[in-house]
User: What shape does this take?
Amino acid sequence: MTRRGRSKLIIGFIYFSLEANKMIKWWNKSFISVMLVFLFLISAGLTVSEEAEKNCNNGTAKKWTWIFYDDADFTPGFDPFYPFASQAYSSENLNVVVLQDTYGDSAKIWYIDSHHNPVFREGWGEVNMGDYHTLKNFVEYAKNNYPAERYLLSFYDHGMGWRGACIDDTDNDHLTMDEIQKALTETEGVDVTCFTAPCVMGALESVYELRNLTKVYIGSEETSGYAWWWYVIGDICDILNQEPDIDEIELGGDIIELIYKDSDRWSDYDFGDQLTMSAIRTDRIEELADAIDTVAQHLIYNFEVSSDKVESIYYKVQKFEWDHLIDIYSFAENYLSVETNQTVCQEMENVMECLQNAVIAECHKSAHPDAHGLTIYFPNPHKYGYETSYSMSSYGLDFSRNTHWDEFLEYYLGMKPYVIVYGISGGIGVNAYLKNIGGRYGSDISWEIIIDAPLMLSGRISRGSVSIGAGEVVQIESDTVMGIGPATISVITDNDKKTMQGFVVGPFVLLG
Assistant: This one.
């Protein structure tokens, strides 16, 4: 039996799955389990043989280098390093290099040779895997010492979607998406990025952050685990070695296919129906973001009507991360079922089309039947509040900065007042009624009344501000009016504008 075969036989006895905030322990606290782990470590080949040393890269560029950022510095923690090594291998076309950091131990760099042997290369001492400098330094190390034409970067640890990934419990830190972007920007990016175990990383905001730094992005919409990747690492190495010139898009599709085909082995476990995984082409992600921005602006501008429609369909939409995230396609599809405005329908259909263009391939099991590959932040308003870091410039999310989706959420989740023009009446001057349909008290809400007639001696523009509670209606009135002729009367707030036709006669305004 080969070394790879022996390793597969041993890890076949070990059960593991990483989910949102826990690890399913994959050994029993018994003598037999300890012996199994001991045998596994031996089979992985901890010593550096002369043959293994010869297989290390000599500085000549290969076709691919696989860079594995193995952050197991958390508790309770599972480290997939040895299962990974039992599957991964370097070859004439492929380097495999790993930064391993576990809780309570120092960080180490390993090269995985052609016989699945981990070859120790450097000790880095205590490092903060949640600091961008560590990621940057490791990617630089891999590129300098194991140069290649293309690079695949994979991450292990917890994931938090748009909030980032890779918790380091020793340093009480994690990588934000802005930090990952910064590290990859300073190292000139990679070709394929895989979040192997990190949960909920199949998030539009996360992909958007790396849109110019990787060609293919792979992650899960739902909570995930290393189990889905356990037995496909070797198959991915086979592809990179045997088809080294494969297109990144094709590679992304192949990885999703491998994961889905292998997933049946886990069907008897309680997480067996939870699989979601998708490969995204980043060159199509800005089109999707622009389409969502258009929809968000419509939802804001027509908030009085759109908020009720969103409320009516939210419970039908496919949700993830305990109702913090929603599937983008599912949201657009369900909104179409309650919308009659053709322009809005076209906007929603464009979102669906752009998403399909961006998703290379996706797979999902029965627990998430309406998964289509990408989520967006939209927490259940009956369970959660709005996480203000989503909008904070200091948090650095490009998606929030470049689109209006965060503004829509702030209105919908009651973070901002939303003041509409509730009614307009004539008489001596113009009277109008403003209503706050948002969920937050509004102070100093600006308003304008404009009376546009051929001859206006006074009162053409009136301005002011009001304070208005959630659900409250207040009356405003124009300054003294004096004019004559047909008129267009407009009442404007920051969120709304209503216009009517009328006639001005002296101080009187007649509305038609």
